[in-house]
Design goal:
The structure holds two protein chains of two kinds. Chain A is built from twelve helices and no strands. By secondary structure, chain A is mainly alpha-helical. Chain B is of the alpha/beta class. In chain B, helix 3 packs across helix 4, helix 3 packs parallel to helix 6 and helix 4 crosses helix 6. Chain B starts with a strand and ends in a 12-residue tail after the last strand. The relative contact order of chain B is 0.15. The model of chain B has no long low-confidence stretch (mean pLDDT about 90). The chains are: A mainly alpha, B alpha/beta.
């Protein structure tokens, strides 16, 4: 009798159940995840990894190509490009991940409430969200930065709002798909409140696709942050940002190409890594879905 | 009576899928609610638990009295306090009745924590205790499992454990065994019946399995197309079914001494809500239908000792052959 035998698979490692970690168990996932992890570590420990300051100018040494003392060369003020890249990673990663974090949080709450309760609230949310959805993210971000003003906070807010529609719509669709599942009805029939159902049952069940989408959006957000920085609307000098570095590099493209190529490469590799890791994450989560149905 | 449903009618949008339903169930009793698919069994369950708004329905007439309180007029907040604590509902499909991303333990724990105010560790101890009572082996280990790791019969027992954890007086079980295989079905029904006897619970068992009804129920209410056909104690109902529909249902039970091919069905199908016929809703399929049955709705009338029947031409008594 199958029903009386405890399944042997109950106690396996909790770590292996976390998709974010299991996604690292593939070649692509490991390389991509490794790059992201390394980048995060470099950003966090930047002051300990380099002896130069990101804003220390050394004019006689400007435009020095990559060599043993300045591994990635120096820029037009003689500042060490590697150092500025490390601190730039700080700006890039913080701005994009905080912005996406805020966006995901607000989007999930809005989308979940809209999907669960429906009615007028749902229609209002949908109309507003679809309105922002109909403009390209860059346009929404530019308008918002114009309103809020340039700088790190402005960029974060702009990126958060630009991606809000995506997470709201995704969460709403997820919630609508699962809100009529039997376990929701069962929870209701046993006395659960709306808040309990939303936060304990619906949002955890809708989390996986939103997580993946947030991961991929973080890649896009890095590009958006760099774009805003390139237009001079992001982090203001002397705070380095990859976009700002590329911007100053455009005028010197032929004289000192490394100034623009290096941050450009960093953006490209990071975005590709995030996408690859996102793919690995999708696969890791799918595996879980299949187990669930079995 | 712990629960008394009187002349209950339910409406969804402009249709009236349920009208004039009456039945009652007392502590220590099992009431079987039977009828074909689409006869309104599940709707009755939702009405009793106050969950009609979930499917956009509402009670249009009649009353549901639970332990002296009228439920129909209670606000949602008051109903929510009753649900799980005094009236528990066991949903139809155990395969999907558990949250797939939560471990078993917390899902059962929350019932004791919410309704009995237990601390986290007390609640878990209680969960393990209840699971053990339901003859789940290694209950503590099962608490750490996810629903997909359990078999159907196991999941159904977890669902029953959730219903029991709030120490309810009334359990409404909506086809608790339909998705399970036969041997597990028997176990689950046996567990439920034992609980009713031991704890003095009241149980409304919704099923279309007349065999289960005959085995464990004390009383039976037969629904047809959203109306009550017959409600009586289980023995007289099976021995001398008075409503032609009940008679036909009883005839549909396979028996061991039957000649091959002798098992009969009921010709036709339950009409859909939008196409309920005039008069007695069973008349197009009824062998005893007369002209009056086509125009006049038979009102539920007292029958025998404490029974009810809604038929113009009840079958006369006499042992059923």
């Amino acid at each position: 009798m199958t029903s009386t035998v405890a399944p042997p698979s109950i106690r396996h490692s909790r770590l292996g159940q976390i998709a974010v970690i299991r996604a690292l168990f593939t070649v692509k996932g490991a390389i991509a995840g490794g790059w992201i992890l390394a980048l995060v570590l470099v950003a966090v420990f930047a002051p300990y990894l380099t002896s130069y300051g990101y804003d220390i100018q050394n004019l006689p040494n400007a435009f020095s190509p990559p060599d043993a003392t300045h591994w990635l060369g120096t820029d037009e003020f003689g500042r060490d490009v590697l150092t500025r890249m490390m601190y730039g990673a700080r700006t890039s990663l913080t701005v994009s991940s905080v912005a996406i974090g805020i966006s995901v949080f607000i989007g999930m709450v809005l989308g979940a409430a809209a999907g669960y309760f429906g009615g007028r609230f749902d229609r209002a949310v949908t109309v507003v969200v679809d309105l922002t959805w109909s403009f390209p993210e860059i346009l929404v971000a530019l308008i918002l930065v114009a309103i809020i003003g340039p700088g790190v906070t402005g960029t974060m807010a702009a990126i958060a709002v630009a991606y809000l529609a995506q997470f709201t719509r995704l969460t709403r669709a997820q919630i609508m798909a699962i809100k009529n599942e039997t376990y929701v009805e069962a929870a209701r029939s046993l006395g659960a409140s709306h808040t309990h159902i939303l936060f304990r049952h619906l949002i955890p069940n809708a989390l996986a696709p939103v997580l993946v989408s947030a991961m991929l959006a973080t890649g896009d957000a890095i590009i958006l942050e760099a774009t805003l920085g390139f237009f001079g609307l992001g982090a203001q000098p002397p705070t380095p940002s990859w976009g700002g570095m590329m911007s100053s590099g455009t005028a010197l493209m032929f004289r000192a190409p490394w100034i623009i190529i290096i941050p450009g490469l960093a953006v490209a590799i990071t975005v590709i890594a995030i996408n690859l890791y996102g793919d690995a994450l999708i696969r890791a989560l799918d595996l879980r879905n299949r187990m669930r149905e079995g | 009576m712990l629960l008394e449903v009187e002349k209950l009618s339910v409406g969804i949008a402009r249709i009236n899928p349920l009208s004039d339903i009456s039945f009652g169930v007392d502590k220590g009793e099992i009431l079987g609610l039977v009828g074909e698919s689409g006869s309104g069994k599940s709707l009755t369950a939702l009405a009793v638990t106050g969950l009609l708004p979930l499917i956009g329905g509402r009670v249009t007439a009649g009353s549901i009295r639970f332990d002296g309180t009228e439920l129909v007029t209670q606000p949602e907040a008051a109903l929510r306090k009753l649900r799980g604590k005094r009236i528990a509902f066991i949903t139809q499909n155990p395969m999907t009745a558990l949250d797939p991303v939560q471990r078993i333990g917390p899902q059962v724990d929350i019932m004791s924590r919410l309704h009995l105010g237990k601390s986290a560790s007390d609640a878990r101890a209680r969960t393990v205790d209840i699971l053990t009572q339901l003859r789940i082996p290694e209950a503590a280990a099962i608490c750490e499992a996810y629903p997909h790791q359990l078999s159907g019969g196991m999941k159904q027992r977890i669902v029953i454990a959730m219903a029991l954890a709030g120490e309810p007086d009334l359990i409404v079980a909506d086809e608790p065994t339909t998705a399970l295989d036969v041997t597990v079905q028997a176990q689950i029904i046996h567990i439920l019946a034992t609980l009713v006897r031991e704890r003095g619970l009241a149980l409304i068992l919704i099923t279309h399995d007349m065999g289960v009804v005959a085995q464990v129920c004390d009383k039976v209410a037969v629904l047809y197309a959203g109306r009550l056909a017959e409600a009586r104690a289980v023995f007289p109902l099976f021995a001398t079914p008075a409503h032609p529909y009940t008679h036909a249902l009883v005839d549909c039970i396979p028996r061991a001494n039957m000649a091959p091919g002798a098992l009969s069905g009921i010709p036709g199908a339950v009409p859909s809500v939008a196409r309920y016929p005039e008069g007695c809703r069973f008349h197009p399929r009824c062998p005893a239908a007369q002209d009056r049955c086509k125009t006049v709705v038979p009102a539920p009338m007292p029958y025998a000792a404490d029974g009810m029947i809604a038929c113009h031409h009840p079958l006369e008594g006499g042992p059923h052959g």
